[in-house]
Amino acid sequence: MGLCKKLLIGGGITALIILILGLSLGLTVGRRNIRSTFFSRCEKFKEHDCKKLWDLFEKAYVNKDPCKVPVEAYNPLIAAAPFKPQCNKMMFWSKTKDVVHGLTAKRKDCFVTLEDTLLGSVLDDLTWCGKEGSKDTFTAGCPEWSECVNNPVRSFWNRSSAAFADVACGDVTAMLSGSIDTPFNSTSNFASIEVPRFKASRVKKLNVVMVIQKNAISNCNHPSLKNLRQSLDTGITYSCKDVSESRIQECGAKPEIACGACW
Ligand code: DVN
Question: What are the GO MF terms of this UniProt record (predicted)?
Fold first, then answer.
């Protein structure tokens, strides 16, 4: 076989080995990244055994088809770090993630969202999945949110949203968007999972804050909010206020503004 051919084949084999090594390194780095992120965020809370929580987390999806991870798979994790009722501080949201967390990051004295709790915090904005026959955690090549309902990420958020709503109490706040044509969308997690779990035996009132940005097309008079009121458990009172994004940001910037005076 000519020298040139031998060099070509050798080069091809070398390239293939580099590719396989790169892929497996990438997968290993991916698992190490999510694990180190999980631990660094978990350790900030100083209230749980982070290794135990990580092991319970992995058990939910590792070595499983990533489209066959039901919400119940996360029950042991939720049971190990149950959500605490934080009456009159709990905030829910829909399509307003950045505005809400911009506020709660600065005003933990006033409001707490699911993503401000231990379990919500350690996995916020992360992607993960497993696959049959592998004991690894993957952070790439996982199903998209809408690709299959029982994917590891969506099942975690559906299960944790339910558990967080189950402990909602006192005056509950919900921040909705005035920039979309249906602020209360029946298919959203807020509408389909959380609101149905607000019970009058615990929740006294739901205060909706409609975030009004420059491009606002909806407000508290939007018809979908009538659906929200009607879906509330009997006995839970309701209010809605149109609040400018700038006012919400001001409440975050000025801790001297009392929680109840933010809007
Ligand atoms: O009360 C909040 C909070 O408790 C959360 O856990 O659930 C409630 C918000 O859910 P929601 O009403 O469905 O609101 P959103 O804004 O549609 O989506 C909530 C979260 O699910 C977001 O983190 C979304 O991810 P993203 O887009 O910010 O990276 C995620 N999500 C919803 N639909 C999605 C999706 N992610 C990807 N594709 C989709 N189709």
Answer: NAD+ nucleosidase activity, cyclic ADP-ribose generating; phosphorus-oxygen lyase activity; transferase activity
User: Is 87 one of the annotated active-site residues of the chain?
Assistant: yes
Map residue 126 onto helix, strand or coil: coil
Ligand 1 nearest atom to the CA of residue 160, by list position = 6
Q: CB of 190 closer than 6 A to ligand 1?
A: yes
Cβ distance 224 to 191 under 8 Å?
A: no
189: left (phi over 0), alpha (psi -120 to 50) or beta: alpha
CA separation for the pair 69, 66 (Å, rounded): 6
| Residue whose entry in the numeric block shows the structure tokens 């909705």 | 176
Q: Which of 148, 169, 220, 259 is catalytic?
A: 169
Contact indicator for 54, 39 with CB cutoff of 8 Å: yes
Domain ranges of the chain: 29-261
Instruction: Choose which CATH entry (1.20.82.10, 1.10.220.30, 2.40.10.270, 2.40.30.10) describes domain 29-261.
Output: 1.20.82.10
- In this structure, what token pair is assigned to residue 5? 């051919």
Give the nearest ligand 1 atom to 125 CA: 29
Q: Is the CB of 156 under 6 A from ligand 1?
A: no
Catalytic (active site) residue 148:
no
pTM, 2 dp:
0.90
Tell which atom from ligand 1 comes closest to the C-alpha of 157: 6
For 233, half-sphere exposure in the C-beta direction (CA atoms, 13 angstrom radius) is 16
Which amino acid is it at 26? G
